[in-house]
């Protein structure tokens, strides 16, 4: 297990130059935008416009802060995405643009290289003691709001716990927090 503190997350420009991303974790460690196997990041979106295109990548987007946005993904009907919405998976190589609903938003972006890895993202609210099931492979627990303790590691808002385990397991979580649980599996 590795605790990734919010203060240590890497800030970098968007691939299309239109904003800034906060990289939470990437594999292999230190990989650039063209070489990663998987990547978890947050971005602040302040204006309407196109998304960066990532050939061969699948992504899931969740709204962390703000009113949300409407996504226009090629080949699909427009989709509204808000803080209350389920995380939205789609191909990162499909031309995509967004229109903000009412001002700036912050999103959570999980990406995996198609044909090599798959991923899932779920929003989990904790108030007291809870258990969350994790599949084998790599799991990340991002604390979005509040504070939580996961297997003895304390997470504050923005912190992330990276768990590498070849076996499916259940993890004990205690606290009052909104978390995003991310599972990444090799194919």
TrEMBL record:
<protein>
    <recommendedName>
        <fullName>HutD family protein</fullName>
    </recommendedName>
</protein>
<dbReference type="InterPro" id="IPR014710">
    <property type="entry name" value="RmlC-like_jellyroll"/>
</dbReference>
<dbReference type="Pfam" id="PF05962">
    <property type="entry name" value="HutD"/>
</dbReference>
<dbReference type="InterPro" id="IPR011051">
    <property type="entry name" value="RmlC_Cupin_sf"/>
</dbReference>
<dbReference type="InterPro" id="IPR010282">
    <property type="entry name" value="Uncharacterised_HutD/Ves"/>
</dbReference>
């Amino acid at each position: 297990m590795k605790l990734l503190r919010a203060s240590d997350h890497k800030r970098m420009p968007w691939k299309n130059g239109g904003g800034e991303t906060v990289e939470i974790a990437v594999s292999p460690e230190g990989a650039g935008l063209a070489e990663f196997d998987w990547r978890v990041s947050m971005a602040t979106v302040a204006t309407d416009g196109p998304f960066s295109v990532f050939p061969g990548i699948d992504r899931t987007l969740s709204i962390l802060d703000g009113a949300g946005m409407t996504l226009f993904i090629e080949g699909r009907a427009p989709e509204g995405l808000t803080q209350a919405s389920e995380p939205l998976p789609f191909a990162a190589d499909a031309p995509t643009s967004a229109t903000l609903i009412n001002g700036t938003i912050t999103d959570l972006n999980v990406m995996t290289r198609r044909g090599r890895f798959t991923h899932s993202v779920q929003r989990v609210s904790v108030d007291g003691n809870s258990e969350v099931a994790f599949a084998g492979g790599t799991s990340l627990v991002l604390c979005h709001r509040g504070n939580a303790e996961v297997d003895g590691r304390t997470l504050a808002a923005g912190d992330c716990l990276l768990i590498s385990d070849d076996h499916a397991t259940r993890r004990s979580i205690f606290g009052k927090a909104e978390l995003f649980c991310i599972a990444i599996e090799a194919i």
